[in-house]
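Blackboard transcription, Thursday session:
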Amino acid sequence: MPQDVNVKICGLTAPEHVQAAARAGARYAGFVFFPKSPRHLEVARAAELAADAPVGLAKVALTVNATDAELDRIVGAVPLDMLQLHGKESPDRVAAVKDRFGLPVMKAVGVADEEDLAQIDLYSEVADQLLIDAKPPKNAVLPGGNGLAFDWRLLAGRKYWRRPWMLAGGLTPQNVAEAIRMTGAQQVDVSSGVETAPGVKDAELIRSFIGAAQG
Ligand SMILES: O=C(O)c1ccccc1NCC(=O)[C@H](O)[C@H](O)COP(=O)(O)O
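(Written on the board underneath:)
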């Protein structure tokens, strides 16, 4: 059974849900900085949430094509353990962000079909971790956090990428164990699957997701 699976709860906006995630055994807490998202946080609010997060819970700032100035504001105010780049950042941009901010960088790669897997190799050259997520639908407002899964069979038998990676996209308490079984993922990420409405996290769903992921 997958007890060692690391879980990231993404899009946290309330202290009680940060605490619930940590108590249930989450390894990472994701804070979204993308104004069009229902999970968007102002920098000051994220700073409070991150400062109060229990020791051992890694705090991840998620940005989308952010400029250096935007990242300066976030990194300067929020105690962080990792940056997640969830836009169209090039490999050179990933490397530049890593150098400038001195934090580990996780690059999100959207997958819909076999061809998309080449991106994982490309970004493995520069990123510390990869987030393998469902590619958003055309014209989607959000590049992630859409509650959509991709075909996990694309990852079957390929769990040994060069970098640590997380499986994301449409995971729920009901399907996460099967997703882990099919893909061999040792880390999983969820947002919509632990919400009762877009942007509204639920402590019980967080607990049941982590319980199901960790067996
Ligand atoms: O969650 C958002 O609102 C979001 C906004 C803009 C870019 C990325 C976003 N989320 C990225 C994540 O890491 C999500 O957790 C991941 O895409 C999985 O989301 P879900 O399918 O809803 O579980």
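Lecturer's comment: Helices lie at 15-24, 43-51, 68-77, 91-101, 118-124, 176-183, 203-214.
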